[in-house]
Amino acid sequence: MFVSQVADGPPSSHDSPQLRPQMTRGEIESALASGSSPPVFTSSLRRSLRNDRDDSALDQNHLSHRKTDCSQPLSSNEPETKERKNQICFQPRASILDYTELMYQGSDRIRGLVTCFWTIIGAYLISLLLSHYENNGEFLSRGLASLIFSRGTDLILSDLALVLSTSFVVPFVRVLWIGRWQPRFLDPRHSRSMIFQAVAEIGWLVVWYTWQGTRGWPWSQRCFFSLHTAVNWMKVHSYLSTNRRLACSLRTRNELEGLQSTRKEQNKVTCMQIKALDAELCPYMVRFPETQTLSNYAMFQLCPTLVYEIEYPRTSRIRWGYVAEKMAGTVGIFIVFYIVVAHLVIPHLERMHEVGLLLTTVHLMGPMATCWLLFFFITFDSIANGFAELTCFADRRFYDDWWNARGLDEFSRKWNRPVHMFLARHIYMPVRELWKNSRDVKRSGFISRLQKNMPPSVAAMAATFFFSSILHEVTIVVACHRWNHGVFFFSQMLQIPVILFAERAAWFRGQQALRNWSFWLSMVFFQPLLLCLYTYGAFVPKSSSLQGPIATSTTAIPAANATYSL
Counting CB atoms within 10 angstroms of each CB, which of 150, 214, 416, 501 has the fewest? Predict the structure, then answer.
């Protein structure tokens, strides 16, 4: 159930985020109306026009009067640095399945579909609860509830301490990188600074993973705390990495300005460099390092994004009715999630030692797919949109049309855009640039042949998959307190040759419907299979005939007591 909650994936080379299009839709229409030559419709321009059409239905009264206009294109006389080209674009946009936003706009295009969906879900749940009452004399199983809410105060206080501990990044940046008395040996442009940052992040992770392991929480609390630790680590890394880059630009700009002041004549090249660095340090209204405050970091911590920016597009007000509706949706979806897990997932896991691993996987295909959909709606439609409304965060594009995915790489980019944007900025783009630059350096041996034959986009994709697989495996091991020989790690890394085959096989690349069908069939089957593999040692006793390497490698628990002891 919790296998795919940190889903992410590498961005493709043809879908790398752009800062913003060079021409807006209005400029293109004006150019065509004036009789001038039409613009060249590149792939990035087509994507920008498609995004403009999708964003035209936004509530203009709500999104047009932004506090910070971060979506306007760069002026023609504003220099654009290499760092700017690799920045993630934040624009005022709504979630494409956010029916609450559509209803606020007066549109009812999907209202009937949403009503029909939840009516069917409600009818099925009533039937399920009645069947449970006939068999057990109670409508709702209480064992899972007592497990979830046990030691709730301890979990809440620990989670609050976890979030507050991330604020160390503000004095870290101010003292070491931009302060007046910063150490010279920790120049942000030197590799020592990157090593010091990595040590600080790893130390923070070790402290909280160790804390989680010593609390004696049940599996539900461990899963939540492990996932929230991973999310907060990504925020910490993005904040430190982005500010280290800006600190490098600030120091370079001050050195160029000092060099320029010692000369009698103004050097045009130096002036252009200073102007480009100024544009990077002050992209919109606020200038770095004025943003290095606790209030700025607290706003970033509350915003539903994992990529730090100096400023974000903002809305003009908070719609409390919208917030209340998202809160009600969160509670309702959680109740449905609880019923599905308690009545359809756990009973099949209890009987795994009787019916076998394969048959249990088949029984769990429907419930696991339902749990995955419920997790998606409660995370990205209810919680993310609710926090976005509370923080006036205008970019609500938390997902794309993941249901049309033709492979794991496309699905990972579309179903969880906050993690995808984090990987795009901090893993994919740096590795691609490093690989591209290292190909010019002459080397001999295996590494030289590898750099010559492997394109930078493939190397960046492999590095992103490797990082994602490590993050998944560590999170699951910490949450479950058992290691099953890296099953999840190898299953995700094996997707790389599958992706390359699908992209290079001409007969398969054009079969869009076939690729979509094959992807969803594999998702529906392999998700419950991974769940069974990672819970095998807990639900199957040692005396069972289904023993295997996974069962014997963990501490088996008697089946009668295994339900709430994982």
Answer: 214
